[in-house]
Amino acid sequence: MRLLKIVPDNTNLPFVSLRKWAFGLTLLLSLAAVGLVFARGLNLGVDFVGGLMIEEKFASPPSLDKLRSTIDRLELGEARLQTVGNDNTISIKLPPPQSSDEGAANRIVQQVQLAITRDFPDARFSRQDSVSGKVSGELIWKGILAVVLAVVGIGLFAIFRFEWQFGVSTVVAIVHDVLMTLGFFALTRFEFDLNIVAAVLTIIGYSINDKIVIDDRIRENMRRYRKMDMSGIVDLSVNETLPRTVMTSVTILLALFALLIFGGPVLRGFTAAMILGIFVGTYSSIYVSSSLLITLGLRPDPSLAEPVVPANAPKPR
Amino acid sequence: MLDFPRWKVISIFAFLAALMALAIPSFLPESVTDRWGAFPHPRVNKGLDLAGGSYLLLEANTDELVKNRLEAMREQIVSQMAVGPAIPIGDIATDNGKLSFLLRNVTQLDAARERLNKLTGGVGFTGQRDWDLQVVDSSRVVMTPTEAGITAAIKEAMATATDVVRTRIDKLGTKEPTIVGQGTNRIVVQVPGLKDPQALKELLGKTAKLEFKMVADQAYTPGGIIPAGTQALPYPEGGPGAKILVKRQAILTGDQLLTAKQSFKQEDNAPIVDFGFNSEGGRKFAEITQRNTGKRFAVIVDDQVISAPRINTPILGGAGYIEGSFTVESANNLAIALSSGKLPITLKVVEERTVGPDLGQESINAGVRASAIAVILVIVFMIVTYGRFGFYADYAVIINVVVIMGVLALLNGTLTLPGIAGFVLTIGTAVDANVLINERIREERRRGRSVIQSVELGYKEASRTIFEANATHAISGVIMLMLGSGPVKGFAVVLLIGIATSVFTSVTFTRMLVVLWIRRNRPTEINI
Question: Which chain A residues are within 8 Å of B479, Cβ to Cβ?
Answer without folding.
Answer: 146, 149-150, 153, 201
